[in-house]
């Protein structure tokens, strides 16, 4: 985590690596960067990372379904974002700028009304359910089984949680 933090602070950094055997942090500098590493999708994702405590969060602006978003996060050794406290929730809201949904990692697809984080599957102990279109969230509709940040007020300033159809295409937040 410290290696990533060092790299994120340096605009010239193009990669970071940690060697367990030597406890060494290697931070790539422009003279050690390969041209392809600067344009690779994974690297672009890393450069957009924001650190909160022991996690790095990545806002992915591409629109995709919840399961495809989870798979993309998984491809880079991450998962859709999980939220453990109101402070962490507020931090994630600060990364949110899409007017509608933004996927995070909760779902009740295994058992209707029983919301869990997907990876690893564990109970959601903090929540921030909102009201969307006068409906209290989660609505409990059978086809709305995935968790999103949703702009819940008519003035567009308050993101809260809402259940949504997992097949909808939204941007998403990954965490590592």
From TrEMBL:
Pfam families, per the entry: Lectin_C (PF00059)
Stretches assigned to the C-type lectin domain: 52-175
SMART domains in the record: CLECT
Protein name per its UniProtKB record: C-type lectin domain-containing protein
Organism of origin: Mytilus coruscus (Sea mussel)
